[in-house]
Amino acid sequence: MDSTWFRRFGPAPEGRMRLVCFPHAGGAASSFLPLSRAFGGRLDVLAVQYPGRQDRRREEPYGGITAHADALAEALEPLTEEPYALFGHSMGAVLAYETTRRLAAAGQPGPRRVFLSGRGAPSRLPNAHDRLGSDAEILAAVRGLGGTGHAVLDDPELLDMVMPALRADYGALGTYTWDGGPPLDSPVTAIVGDADPVVAIDEAAAWHDHTTGDFGLEILPGGHFYLDERTADVCEIITNGLLAAGSTA
């Protein structure tokens, strides 16, 4: 396992499918600690650690989705020899999708299923939420979504630590465009909160057009960060989705 890119929150469970999780904009690998614990070893949960945050905070964040997905696909290639699935939330959904496309183009085995959470399909872009310029606009948007603790946003020292990653991530989303390429071969499950202020249900449902495999849409109570309160439901969705894909968790 590439210790630069991936974090595991406990011993590796033997003989379990690997679930690779991609965080949201400004997020870090630790955001998936509750999900990892909720699975209790039924899956081998790996969380992606993007450059520019936590133990990689001295590294320069990636400034574009394309370059980021290129690097992630390269890091993931050695892990594709065993069965795996991907889960991405918000910006992480875009990166999971684009990483899967690159692995397919390189002839690598695809994920058993791709779970795309809190994000509309790229064919529905642009999203006004992605087109933020100033720090004030970014902070207002983050506060509105509730994904970063207000204790961080209200502490000048902590804010100085997280702002470079937030600027880079929102800059990457703001310049991302879908190239109209072929759909994924892997099955896809889209997940969205019923009160998400930036992702409409029909936008999440449009992921159906981006796979030739099985597709499922799951709607859970909550806003953009519904998964903070619905971790058990997300575990059930992932487990059922992998069973539908012919895999066991």
TrEMBL record:
UniProt keyword annotation of Iron present: no
SUPFAM superfamilies assigned to the protein according to its UniProt record, in alphabetical order: alpha/beta-Hydrolases (SSF53474)
Thioesterase TesA-like domain residues: 20-242
Keywords recorded for this protein, A-Z: Hydrolase
SMART domains found in the cross-reference section: PKS_TE
One Pfam family recorded for the sequence: Thioesterase
GO MF term (any one): hydrolase activity
InterPro entries: AB_hydrolase_fold (IPR029058), TEII (IPR012223), TesA-like (IPR020802), Thioesterase (IPR001031)
Family membership: Belongs to the thioesterase family.
PANTHER family: S-ACYL FATTY ACID SYNTHASE THIOESTERASE, MEDIUM CHAIN (PTHR11487:SF0), THIOESTERASE (PTHR11487)
Listed name of the protein: Alpha/beta fold hydrolase
Protein's organism: Streptomyces exfoliatus
